[in-house]
Predict the 3D structure of the following.
Amino acid sequence: MSNKNNSKDSRPISNGVSDEAQSRDHKKLGRELDLFYIDENVGKGLPMLTAKGMAIRRELERFIIDEEIRRGYMHVHTPDIAKLDLYIKSGHYPHYKDSMFSPIEVEDEKFMLRPMTCPHHFQLYLSKPRSYRELPMRIAELAQLYRFEQSGELMGLQRVRAFCLSDAHIICATEEQAADEIGKALDLIEYCAGVFGFVEGKEYTFRLSLGDRNNQEKYYKNDAAWEKGENLLRGVLENRGGKFTEIKDDAAFYGPKIDIQMKNANGKEDTAFTVQYDFCMPVRFDLAYTGTDGEQKRAFVVHRSSIGAIERLMAFLIEHYAGSFPLWLSPVQAKVIPVSEKQAEYAKEVFEKLRDSGIRAELDDSNETLGKRIRNAKTEKVPYTLVVGDEEIKSKTATLESRAKGKIGALAVEEIIHRLQEEIRSRAL
């Protein structure tokens, strides 16, 4: 049943801003670790990822696309822009007008930078007649979206004006099928959270976000559908047996939602992932399918975001790990350091073997002292360093040191590669 979660994170980030919390702030670490950059000449709320930041994003994208395809999702691609009429039809305009960029007029037609993908996915669904045999149809996309957040709300990667959302819309044949898909979407979210090292009750909590029957400006008017949708989501959460809170007047305009909430290093709470039940769009878009009796039936829709906005997730991950990412997410996974100039050629050979094996490696053969180069690797939070000297050249080895475990010792380069590949493959924390 619904109740408040009193579990507290051991890190003091939710009440006040401690020194540790400040040291975890993703804006600070983003600069220090060279992950992203915001330039006023580009625009507020429009972060640019560096090569290191993009390495993290690429891992997240590959992970979620592969996992969703494994779970029966069809990954598609739709344009970042659409005709204004599409958003008038969906109801996003004018409901979300204040958070949308202004229309762009071209050849007497008005277009919008899209704030969401649901209308695009519905039009894909409508591209041909559908049968009950095709349902549930899970349409997924890593979609670039644009929302005009107020200047005072912008914050690093956590709240931006352009972002990539792990979005999906599941077209269902029945309410029972929709409830089952909501449960499966929550299973996926919990699995992903576990891979990232997030623990329920510590790093994240569940919230049931409800509508307001009296607020017809904010919400689609259909009291019976709201009642049924809210009870459906509440039932899914109760059947799962976990804790959740309920909050009024924070639903989507088209239906209630389950939000997975997380706090940043400064204690501000945001929605990280979400699952939403939609009783409005099937009517607006006439989403239908041919049933077992040959008759046309109204479909049901579930919206969900498995890992949320990539940018916001990156902000949470930077703060969760204080920049010391697990190997699979680390922008630089290994750094090769020759003791002196004499070992530079062999160090380059080792670096190239790592790189050719798919490991993100760097070679530091600069003129700095050995101690300084090792300290730099630690400051940059590189998980592994491989030091090579004369002995390593003779034995075709490298002396391996782990950020987490300290000095491991001299190992054959092939063995080091195998160790790192296995750790990356398993996404060990």
About this structure: Residues 1-15 have pLDDT under 50 and may be disordered. Residues 327-426 form a domain with the Rossmann fold fold (CATH 3.40.50.800). The chain has two domains: 19-320, 327-426.
